[in-house]
Amino acid sequence: MIEIKHHPIPWIGNKRVKTNNLKQLFVKQKYMGSSNDSRRYNYNVHGLTKEDKPFKLITGFETSNQALYIEQEIEKYLGIENVDVSGEFKG
Fold this sequence. Notes:
- By secondary structure, this protein is α+β, with helices and mostly antiparallel strands.
- The protein contains one helix and five strands; from the N terminus they run E-E-E-E-E-H.
- The strands form two sheets. Strands 3-4-5 form a three-stranded antiparallel beta sheet, covered by helices on one side.
- The two termini are about 30 Å apart.
């Protein structure tokens, strides 16, 4: 089980994910707008179930490295081989 919690204030993004139904993790880039002629993005870690149903796992990383690190560490811990997913941010 992967559990996402925000403390000390409860957050709507708190969730539990059964790892035995987790097929793949991947990062998506989200455009957040621009300021001073500079585009801003955030990066979100998504999951894919064994039934190929996508879901958001953790959102709001300011850098791609943060999100990619979380993706890689969870995959390594769970023994999930990294494969390409359509729409995935490649870095």
